[in-house]
Design brief:
This protein has 166 residues and is mainly α. The chain has one domain (23-157): AhpD-like (Up-down Bundle), CATH 1.20.1290.10. 69% of the residues lie in helices and 0% in strands. The chain has nine helices and no strands. 26% of the residues are buried. This is Carboxymuconolactone decarboxylase family protein. GO terms for molecular function: peroxiredoxin activity. Pfam families: CMD.
């Protein structure tokens, strides 16, 4: 009996190091999932410079530990012309001078919404985002952040494997 339990544990561990339910199968099980997230994400992101959107998606993906989304959005940011040194400094954006006041406000808001488990959005968080964004932009930014957080949770929970160039 102990050997069977060991074999089961090994099989589970093997699955956890790769996609235990491949991406396309996840989407086949719930076809509206990618459509809804893509639709919301694209609608909300229209308000902003595409580079800002990618910085927000990357920062949320860093906080959530989503390798699949990190790889994808880093590549998309580079294709948009985002400088590699800025991507390198993103996790330490507070200590870096390479991000504009608007980008810093967006990154602050991203952290506030992504890390809700550590506490609610504060008055200080609201003051910082309102200093740089209109109410409409805050709603769209919040929808963008909510969307990437949903993608992160799906990709991380099913262990989507990032494509890495050889």
């Amino acid at each position: 009996m102990q050997d069977t339990q060991f074999d089961t544990t090994v099989a589970v561990e093997a699955k956890l190091h790769g996609e235990w339910l491949p991406r396309m199968q996840v989407y086949q099980q719930q076809p509206e999932l990618p459509r809804a997230l893509i639709s919301l994400g694209e609608s909300a992101a229209k308000t902003f410079d595409p580079k800002l959107v990618e910085l927000v998606k990357l920062r949320a993906s860093q906080l959530n530990g989503c390798a699949f989304c990190l790889r994808m959005h880093a590549e998309e940011a580079r294709q948009l012309g985002e400088a590699q040194h800025r991507l390198d400094l993103l996790s330490a954006w507070r200590e870096s001078q390479v991000f504009s006041a608007r980008e810093r406000a967006a990154l602050h808001w991203t952290e506030a919404l992504t890390k809700l488990i550590t506490g609610p959005v504060t008055a200080e968080d609201i003051v910082k985002v309102r200093a740089q964004f209109s109410d409409k932009e805050i709603v769209d930014l919040s929808a963008t952040i909510a969307t990437i957080n949903a993608w992160n949770r799906i990709a991380a929970s099913f262990h989507f494997t990032p494509e890495v160039p050889v």
